[in-house]
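Ligand: zinc ion. Inputs:
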Amino acid sequence: MIELLRKGLGRLVLLSTLFFCLGTLLFAQGKKYPQGYFKFPINPGQRGYLSGTMGELRSNHFHSGIDIKTGGQEGLPVYASADGYISRIKVSAFGYGNALYIQHPNGYSTVYAHLKSFKGKIGEYVKEQQYSRKSFSVELFPSQTHFKVKKGDIIGYSGNTGGSGGPHLHFEIRDRFQQVLNPLLFGFSEIVDNISPEFYALKIVPLDINSRVKEKLDAPVFYPKKHSETAYSAPTISVWGNIGLEIKANDKLNGASNKNGVNTLIVTVDGKETYRYNNDRYAFSQTRHINVHIDHECYKQGEGRFQRMYVADGNKLPLYEAVNQGFLNITDGSEHRVEITAIDAYGNSSKLNFTLKGTPPQETRPQPFVLSREVATPTFEVFNNTLKIWGDANECLVYDGFFANNIKASYMDKGQSVFLWDLRKKIPDSVYVAGKSVAFNIKEAVKPGALHQVFDDETGLQVNFSIPSLFDTLYLDLSRAGDTFALGPYGFPMKSYIRVLMDVKEDIGPKRKLAYYQINGRSPSFAGGKWQGERLQLKTRDLGTYTVLADTTEPVIRYLGKARNVVSFKIWDELSGIQSWEAKLNGRWLLMHYDYKRKFIWSETLNPNTPLRGKLELEVRDQMGNTKTYSVVIK
Ligand SMILES: [Zn+2]
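Predicted complex:
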């Protein structure tokens, strides 16, 4: 007992010391980043422009640095930001493309991505490693003494490699814990910004069954009125109960039309701060939490990215200071002044002001339901934890198992009654309104943080959840037609993978050529699949519609020719897509660079002076193992 106590105390002392150190460190970092320590990596000393800022909302991640414009060109010299050594080099056809990492003696590191090429000795070293590993993709960790750099040394040339959508340099500054920091806080005089952020849209979301916005359980969008460069307003909005605010805002910088991200947002209600968000620093491991920072379902439905100004359940980002998670609880009949402030990295700010008026839901008065049309089949939708049902009567019967629950309409919407059902209590089977009924396809309420399996008799599907799969409770809906199934609700954010098993019924091709493809109103996108006995398993982090297709077609190779000792080809593949490629010249491995955006592949000899001559064989393989070989004699 005493032993335990002493251990506990020791730990406590150790912990508080650690917290004190961490606290001081974080405070020091938050307030004072070294100014002038880093040199701007592109055209230092000249006016620079950005096409992307820190914390910008991207698909499944926050943007982790700045995107520096290169005037639509490639090949601009990229300079080492400060003294240090090259600690990591990565070459990939995807993501950062050709990327360099420099470790600096003050503990910070810098990252330079989408490079066209590496400078001199670095480039030679990379090529030697590619040849010795017989691989285009490499990740190298040179020793501290291998590539020492001085501030201002040219380390490479800007490009458009990897996932880049146009020529630019992606530049990051990281701290010693590999957290990404906002480079604009390090005092680069090259970037000028005195333009304030802009507000585009405001959304008010009722967060539980008793909440209302404009007397409905709906999340209407309001378009703020701009009064000046920094002042916006929205009309008075009637609300009741637990509600959340969401905003669509952007920031422009001088001299560029790009709409960049806003990474500081503050909400005050009646002059008191209720919510503050700042994304000047974050860890890569948390980046997927962007899907609960934004209203992901709206985003997937094409409404753009609304940032939530409340901390949704399951959101573990340490970027908020919020009272009651930022939820506003308005249950009085009075008016409340709300001010939203958006601030950019240079301190330019804009304010959006509006009033929320507490308005209790109206009692529904029983009255004859008059219809000038035929009675419609009821429709339904899951809204957060509530099932909303539209029907043509004042009352409905909701069935759960053997029970029939008589529900009164909560309010009218578009000439129909809306009935509300709290899904947290029970998942119902069907509803009966005015002689018409409809069955729900919600199978189960799956809770986050637990291993769980759903076996659905109706569709024959099995869905396996792991501990990290979910951010929040999922009201899983499942449907199936043939070998196509839908996992819903569409756009529901997933933290990690789930596995779905289906017995493939249709005879569409040889088993080893079958895989899942996601088909959400666009061309099928390869999602893979692994056979578990007679069932094909899908591993996914996206709810949506999937089908099984057979890819039995080889990739296509088109020879373009030889110019300046370089041979090039176009390669592409229908359905599953290209997985790998390999070239041999007179039987010896030949390096081929690959740019998937241009479907372009080209050679580089180990020694640039060795003439490229003889028998060249290029083999390209797709994700389903279909292989195409192309042979040509190069003269
Ligand atoms: Zn970038």
